[in-house]
Amino acid sequence: MDRRRAVAEPLTPGSAVRREWQRFTPGQRLARFAVYFSVVAAFVLSLGTVEVIPEFLWDAPAQVQDLLLRMWPPDYAHYPSSVHDAMVETLHIATLGTVISVLLAVPLGLLAANNVMPSRTVNTLIKLALVTSRSVNSLVWALLFIAVFGPGALAGTLAIAFRSIGFVGKLLGEALEEAQPGPIEALKASGASWPSLLVFGYWPQVKPAFWALVLLRWDINVRESAVLGLVGAGGIGVALNTAMNLFQWDRVAVVLLAIFVVVIVAEVVVTWVRGRIL
Amino acid sequence: MSEAVHAPRRAFEPDWLARIGWLAALLYVVYAASLLDFTWARFVTGLEQAARFLDRMFPPDFSRWEAVLKGMKESLEIAVLASVGGILLSLPIGFLAARNLMPAWVNWPARALIAACRTFHPVIVAIVFVKAVGFGALAGILALVIASVGFIAKLFAEAIEEISLKQVEAVRATGASFMNVVVFGVLPQVAARFIGFSTYQFDANVRNSTMVGIVGAGGIGAPLFVAFQRFDYDVVCAILIAIVAVVFLCEILSNQVKRVFGEAVQDGQAPRRG
Known about the structure:
The complex is a heterodimer of chains A (about 280) and B (about 270). Chain A is mostly helical and about 280 residues long. Chain A has helices at about 25-50, 55-70, 80-110, 120-135, 140-150, 155-175, 180-190, 195-230, 235-245, 250-275. Chain A has two domains: about 15-70, no CATH class; about 75-275, MetI-like fold (Orthogonal Bundle). The radius of gyration of chain A is 26 Å and the shape is globular. Chain B has about 270 residues and is mainly alpha-helical.
């Protein structure tokens, strides 16, 4: 990082005293100023044009109080009858979605890594596909799959899977590119076949990164699968949507509590497993 | 020694525990798939549907481009305002949550606050805010501010916990006040990473701002959802193209910002969500 370039005059005996050091070159300073300026400009412009109704804002404390009063006490009796099954379904959607995404993302990740697939054209094409997968939100994926497979958990699972492909594929590709060439060359020299290279050369090197990112994605997917039901793709979101549409806020509270508990438990599980296997 | 010579040696011993693990995973997949009603027949009818669906999506219908542009603009405004708000809030909260700078009675509440912000998906938070502040962009902004705090503040606190304390000590040794220690001893060590987290979260906010509209919190999400419900798949396609283009442009933009601030963040070292 040689960004601490000094602007100095040529070193002559007399000038050494009044040399002036600056941390950044003029170009760097200009670029930084441009960033600051555009951030402030974007902020001011957005603030000026965004449509916010002030009456609604002043009303907010009363509304929140009303909301909390309606939520309290939570309707716990609602949990066994219709929340529990939906919660289990959510977990299945998240887990199965992660499994499917890994199955689909591994080949893509291999093709995206330049040292495994030494063709820049293929790498770029695959990376483009991975970017597309990531930029489409899981809710949009869910809407697309609902249009194809009809509402239900199938659409939700595929939505989770397709949203995760970009994430897993990208990070796996990068982990592969960081692999040491030494063991690979040694295997090649011993006449190892292409699958052997992958299994015995690359896999041991990317294994920790692979499991870490699968666990991380599963954790994210548990959160994401909780909202898929809002658009009809199965899971706990359906229960949430129903309760909200009927203004049964005490039931909404139960659903939110259930999501809260599951998310916390998922995070604890991920931390524990990560500590065990990595 | 002689035993080792006679026993057939394998370079890579089979790991039976791992094999059992893979088998269990396979069994789970079959079980879960049957539970969620994945059947071949459904898949086949789905394929027919997909063909019809794609047929109706193309060519994309940009005739209502003004509505798309308006929604997109609102989404971007939501993302910008939420990012600025989230970044400004994350700075102090992140500091308070750093365990090496703050006593336990300060960092515990701060860390609990961050964890609470992270628990719920932005769309669920948006639902609550829609109830609190009504339909519109404000609910979306507030929801994404919460999401931003949950992400930036957490990683910022972790970054601070990893700093070298030598420089902090050196600044302290000069008799600097606490604020001076923070500004000259701590911030320079984490500034680049903070900018990295912020730009990453800006990207995430742009993506999520296109979604909060589904629950009525402003932005392009509402027109998108309506188009889906009306089966106007050509409009859906147009909106999706617009979203992907904007998300892509924003990613390029934030990579530029990261380059300007000289952080060696390639996409790979981008902070991970979670």
